[in-house]
Fold this protein.
Amino acid sequence: MTHPSPDHDQQVFNQHRNLLFSVAYRILGTVADAEDAVQDAWIKWSAADRSQVADPKAYLARIASNQALERLRSTRHQRETYVGPWLPEPILTSGDAAEAVTDAESVSMAMLVVLETLSPLERAVFVLKEVFDFSHAEIAEAVERSEAAVRQAAHRARERVRARRPRFTADRSRQREVTERFLAAATGGDINTLMELVSPDVTLWTDGGGKVRQALKPVVGAQVVAAWFAAIGKVAYQGVEPADMNAELVEINGGPGMVFSGSGRVIATVTFDFDAEGRIVAIHNIANPDKLGAIADGVTRDVGTPPEPRR
């Protein structure tokens, strides 16, 4: 019997690498940890008797999700003792993810924040079932639980996510239009326009991780949030004068976002959550330099789900 060559094994793995990262990133919300989970999957794939693997994609996805789940459990304490709000690491995404509404929503900063409220098991099960359409039996094997336990976790996760995420949001062109107007108003210090674009009870979450000065608690209300952003064009931030600050509209986590840079480095990212009318209901501002590496490296990531049904 002939065995596949190492080159063939590498080719098979590379074929599914984007899928593995997409699964691991949604489970973890961090780029380096997701990459490590993918690398762990490669190591296990290399050592396995691959002649016994009937479905390489399912096999690799199970390994990657299992590794991601273990990493999430090990980092739980760090997130609970984090200085200020812990937000996921932002990534640059392509228009393909934005065009597929389900993909864009499942990788949005707002959804990843909601997933942080789930237990590690619930989060892994939700991602595999609701986003990637794995069967309960496949998920049970991946997370090393019984099918009954997986079904219960899936039900709990689904209920919790539904309670925190709106059923409807504004269409993508409206989101982009509002983001463009917000960027122009913020850099121009136009507080009135900023107040028009946000809902009365808008919430701003800022993540500086204790590395840079940020609000340690959510900032709530149109007036105070608008004032916060109107200061961008007038006040130095992290040692960068307004005249030296560059603001750019880019796609972040499947939706329109803003990247602020200056003095040769990325300073912060800003992403939005919208209601059905297109008003901004939540803003996620990440300024912890440790979380901006994936934005700074300029790599656009394909985090879409496979087009064909899983089963």
Observations:
- Strands lie at 92-93, 198-207, 219-220, 246-252, 255-262, 265-274, 280-286, 300-301.
- The first helix runs from residue 6 to 15.
- The two ends are 29 Å apart (CA to CA).
